[in-house]
Write a structure and sequence with these properties.
Elements: H1 12-32, H2 38-42, H3 44-55, H4 59-108, E1 113-115, E2 121-123, H5 133-155
Antiparallel strand pairs: 1-2
């Protein structure tokens, strides 16, 4: 997230345009910057210097550190796959919740519609599920509130007063 503040000019509009111009320049510079280290790929001497600096001077040190790097990388991939499986289970649970919401809304008399690929508005069939925007917004706001409360509790200092025996005035 980027925050750009411009208070150079007296009016809001001039400051706004200056900020947007700054964002545009940053974007163009980001497009110009290479995503991959070109010199490392093209020049074998630079590549060798990098490998020795990053992974060790001797061949044995490089082999040892690359094994550790590969182990860490495989562990990271395993954790990522576990996290993706958890997200898939959460998505399935949310789909079940959407179907339950649709059934409850049907009982209350709501008729839910969706738009197909051609732009036609059709009624949602049973078992498809429906998004409840009000509950989704409530859940998002509740999560923000809980996070804010947790942060304020974490930052608040608590004085722990312990009685000291044997010390008098």
């Amino acid at each position: 997230m980027i925050k750009i503040v411009t208070k150079q000019y007296p009016t809001f509009l001039e400051n706004y345009f200056k900020g947007m111009e700054t964002i545009k320049e940053l974007y163009i510079e980001a497009l110009r910057a290479p995503a991959d280290p070109v010199n490392l790929i093209r020049d074998p001497y630079v590549r060798e210097k990098f490998m020795k600096k990053r992974f060790g001077r001797t061949r044995a040190e490089r082999i040892q550190s690359l094994k550790g790097f590969n182990r860490a990388h495989s562990l990271r991939k395993h954790e990522y796959n576990l996290r993706m499986a958890d997200e898939k289970m959460v998505e399935e649970a949310e789909q079940v919740k959407r179907v339950e919401n649709q059934k409850i809304r049907r009982k209350l008399g709501f008729i839910d519609y969706k738009t197909d690929a051609d732009g036609n508005i059709i009624e949602v069939a049973d078992g498809e599920g429906v998004d409840d925007q009000v509950m989704d917004e409530f859940n998002i706001n509740d999560a923000r509130y809980q996070k804010k409360v947790q942060e304020t509790r974490a930052r608040k200092k608590i004085d722990i007063v312990t009685p000291v025996q044997g010390v008098g005035r």
